[in-house]
Amino acid sequence: MRSSNPVFSRRGFSRDNGYAGFNAAPQAGAPAAGANPYAQGTAPNPYATNPYAPTGAPAPARTGAMTIDDVVTRTAMTLGTVVLGAALAWALLPVDEANLNKSYGIAIGAALIAFVLSMVQSFKRKPVPALILAYAAFEGVFLGVISSAVSTYIGPGVVMQAVMGTMCVFAGVLLAYKMRWIRVTRRFYGFVMAAAMGFLLLMAVNLLFAVFGGGDGLGFRSGGLGILFGVIGIILGACFLALDFKQVEDGIAYGAPREESWLAAFGLTMTLVWIYLEMLRLLSILSGDD
After folding, report:
1. Per-residue pLDDT reduced to its tens digit, 25-37
2. What end-to-end distance do the CA atoms of the chain give, in Å?
3. Could you point out which of 31, 82, 195, 205 has its C-alpha 20 to 30 Å from the C-alpha of 230?
4. The whole model's pTM is what?
5. Torsion-angle region of 223 (φ positive above 0: left; ψ -120 to 50: alpha; else: beta)
6. Distance of CA 104 to the CA centre of its chain
């Protein structure tokens, strides 16, 4: 399945490496509908064109295939790089009166570089670990400065609350996915993508109004509307976590190459960053209203 997140659209596991996209049409020789818990009349088999997909009886494990340990290891490396970059930025780029503009400038530059690196990786046919880790490092610098500013000017406890909230969302979605309370189907994917596109469009319009009209634009980032859109943003992030889990599950089940675990780590990291930023903004609004 081609999984995405609310910030960037990215490719799923590559066809050349044995992963067929979510929209692949079933072909002769593909597993029967009952072979996959998601393929019982509600979602197409995402590996219909996968040369590693089993036909009839399950095939033996393929050498070099992706495992859950691979995904966990790569994700830990990517998230660890984000945390390290954030910690260094927090320590080395103070947000006091004397250094605020400089630190903000570096943070914005880091965010732009992270965006470019993520887009480059998204359009590549295969994962490039160096690109993914570089993205994580620059994203960490941006998060470190923003988090430091929130801690300094809004409240020292907000950042830790946002971290804990992000972890709770991750754990909750993982539990719901494992218990099959969330079922990722074509309809679910289409709904999430449409909702994310609408959300981003509204945020872009709000930003334009804020830039040219001053203030908070249309008010989507403060007050009651800000709280509402913050909750919507977190819910969207949770939905994209479910898509990421589905991608990982299918990749492991049908023998995606081990290198594709970097794509899973890339997607999970971007989704968690999205949830953290939305959680941080929501808690900042709530703290400001106290």
Report:
1. 333 333 333 344 4
2. 43
3. 82
4. 0.78
5. left
6. 24
